[in-house]
Amino acid sequence: MSFTPTEPVTGGSLRERHRRHGLVTIERVALDLFAERGYDAVTVAEIAEGAGISLRTFFRYFPTKDAIVRASDTQMRQRLLHLLRAAPEDLTPLEAFRTALIASSAVRKEDRPAVLKRWRVMASTPLLRTGSISDMADPNGALVTEIARRMGAPANDPRPQVMVAAMLHVAGQAFLTWAEGGGEGEPEDWTARYLDVLADTFPARRRR
User: Which of 43, 51, 63, 117 is the most exposed place for a label (fewest CB within 10 A)?
Assistant: First the structure.
């Protein structure tokens, strides 16, 4: 999920700052074009021209057009994992993951226009909409590993994978609904409401 825009150009070496500036510029130009004309109507060449770069330079930043829309996914995953690991140990795995997902769904007021624009592009584009949900699966990743640890689950236990996949999917759908509605209300409230539907799906036993 792309809750936040790419981080601003601060810190790091001159080369890192230059690359970050390039990423931010391409994202801004692309999202503006997508919002104005629709994702399918915009070409990579037009994005590159708008950003003042060559096609060769564009592909040094992004392998595909859809990668622009999903550019902040890695940041989101890192933020979500950090919040999950920081959740109190006396919470059930479900409670810990729910808490982390809701916290990671919060969007600062100054970031909201860019985040809303990104998610509205995804919501209005079938290919991106499907990908934004299916790509949330984390079958063998750090999120599943942390949930398995909290469950005390053996390696072949499917519950951690099912919990992570289900809750990420629901949280993503909540964000898409928030975007389709024009960004009304707080995105974390939408996430909480959608996740509550799963409250009775998993046992509430705490890890012993």
Answer: 63
